[in-house]
Write a structure and sequence with these properties.
3 domains; alpha+beta; elongated
């Protein structure tokens, strides 16, 4: 895992530590040619590390990185170049976007319309040039006859075609101008601020320079899709990522990597407090103090906490930035996980306005065991489950959408690291008919002088397989559990249970058996419960 704090990363590189508040004057006349571009982004659960590159010219000059997020973390600004490049001071300034032309956004639709308008203008210029030439032709040197008549006719046809084309181009120009007005009116107004970094450097040759920084208000969270094919007996698990960022800068066609590592973990434990035990006099509060406290206004800390966070513009002492678009992701799904990274194979475009985007990280197809599970105490209905062995890899917790044979069943919270197998539900199984008989109860007093009460509870149910193939059936039953030495429970099951205390849950009984097509399996559970006659027993039927 590449870590942001390791600036050198095992190779010799010049690193500039951010120096804020330095004057811009005298930084040199030469500037880097061209605008910087985002080379890659590493997205964390609660932030992002952005890397920008530009080509710096030879000699002593200034490399200028514009269009940065105004909400970047200043302390994480770092510059890096090849060996032999001398890096000087690095300065960050927040400027209104109107003062930085390269940061003003133009939508792809407007760009396309402007290109079409330019092409029509060029063609109109050619038509005007041809018409001017035709108008300059005279017949003063022509001799009457067939040749002159042919020339006049040819000029007439050419002029007619050019005038017709000119009219069509004028109509097209009017249409494009109207579309441009509509598109520009729909474009949001350019406002706000952008970060601009200027870096003094000296290099004997033209070299690339990299600037990296972190931005908050960004993140990603995992999502899954589980697709069960009941015919093939396969479970396909598709991993996805829901990403968003509200940094204010757009990430256009960038290489994006996703990390499960926490961006801001504690680096050392907190100090251990001293355990003191002492005697203190009882507090004395007068009625006047109580009245004053009740009438006092809300604490200023609470009022300040509710105020939106603002960013100070360097050198002005004024609050000029409004809070960024809030991007909220639950980073707790990554707790306890080893750090892992996902490198997306295709470039990604992600606007900086908090708009969410879903990305596919890959999928795996697993052999699945289909199970029909019944809980007669809860419901006379069978549910279909799929069991599969957990594959290797990092699987953070996240929601999963479930599909059975192409149909959406629903969504569940997916905890893929609980155990070595995945057991996923896929809705009701209507091919199994569950018949639950009414519960039978009987009771009597027992003992030589009737010192105890006894209850006998009998439960019975039957499951019929109406499929054309066999199915594995699981039946779960909660038997009574005595939690006192004077509470005695005797059980009798038919057929014998497969496992007691299933899932480490006391009293839960599991039957698991194959059920052939067209067959009916009957179950019964008899509980004999004996308690003291005069005891107040909870849960006794």
């Amino acid at each position: 895992m590449k870590r942001f704090g390791n600036v050198n990363r095992g190779r010799s590189a010049a690193v500039a530590v951010v120096v804020l508040g330095a004057a811009l004057g005298g930084m040199g006349a030469a500037r880097a040619q061209g605008a910087s571009a985002i080379s890659q982004v590493l997205l964390y659960p609660g932030g992002a590390q952005v890397e920008r590159t530009l080509t710096a010219p030879a000699g002593t000059g200034v490399a200028r990185f514009a269009c940065l997020s105004p909400y970047l973390d200043r302390d994480t600004l770092q510059a890096e170049a090849a060996p032999g490049v001398s890096l000087g001071d690095l300065q960050l300034e927040l400027l209104p976007v109107e003062q930085v032309p390269e940061c003003q956004r133009v939508s792809p639709r407007i760009k396309e319309l402007e290109q079409q308008r330019s092409a029509v203008d060029a063609e109109m210029g050619g038509v005007d040039l041809a018409l001017k030439y035709l108008r300059s032709v005279t017949d003063r040197d022509g001799k009457p006859g067939v040749a002159l008549n042919a020339s006049v006719e040819s000029l007439r046809r050419s002029g007619q075609e050019l005038l017709t084309r000119e009219k069509a181009l004028q109509t097209r120009i009017a249409e494009l101008d109207q579309q441009l007005r509509i598109a520009r009116a729909a474009e949001p107004a350019v406002s706000g601020q952008v970060g601009v970094v200027q870096l003094r450097l000296s290099s004997p040759t033209t070299v690339p320079v990299k600037l990296s920084y972190r931005v908050r208000n960004s993140g990603w969270t995992p999502q899954y899709r589980g697709r069960l094919d009941t015919t093939k007996g396969t479970l396909t698990v598709e991993r996805l990522a829901r990403v968003a960022q509200g940094s204010g800068e757009d990430w256009n066609d960038v290489r994006l990597r996703l990390s499960t590592e926490q961006p801001r973990q504690a680096i050392a434990p907190r100090g251990l407090p001293i355990w003191r035990i002492s005697m203190a006099p009882p507090p004395t509060v007068s009625s006047a103090d109580t009245r004053r406290y009740a009438e006092s206004p809300a604490p200023m800390m609470a009022m300040a906490a509710a105020a939106p966070a603002m960013v100070m513009r360097p050198g002005t002492g004024q609050q000029e930035l409004s809070p960024p678009v809030v991007v909220n992701f639950d980073a707790s799904v990554f707790q306890g996980e080893f750090a892992a990274e996902y490198a997306l194979p295709q470039p990604v475009t992600l606007r900086g306005n908090g708009q969410e985007l879903s990305l596919t990280l890959g999928q795996q197809t697993l052999d699945a065991r289909l199970i029909a599970r019944v809980q007669p105490q809860i419901e006379a209905q069978a549910y279909l489950f799929a069991e599969a062995k957990r594959p290797a890899g990092a699987f953070p917790n996240g929601p999963m959408q479930l599909y059975r044979d192409g149909s959406l069943i629903g969504s569940i919270p997916f905890r893929p690291n609980d155990g070595t197998e995945w057991t996923l539900p896929f809705g009701t199984d209507d091919w199994l008919r569950v018949d639950v008989s009414p519960e039978q109860r009987d009771g009597a007093d027992t003992g030589l002088i009737a010192t105890r009460r006894e209850r006998i509870v009998t439960r019975q149910w039957a499951i019929e397989n109406r499929r054309t193939r066999a199915v594995t059936v699981q039946v779960l039953e909660a038997a009574p559990v005595g939690e006192h030495a004077d509470i005695r429970v005797q059980t009798q099951f038919s057929p014998a249970v497969t496992q007691s205390d299933w899932g480490s849950r006391p009293g839960v009984q599991l039957w698991e058996l194959p059920l052939e097509p067209g067959r009916t399996q009957r179950f019964s559970a008899v509980y004999r419960i004996s308690v003291p006659k005069d005891a107040n027993v909870l849960g006794l039927p």
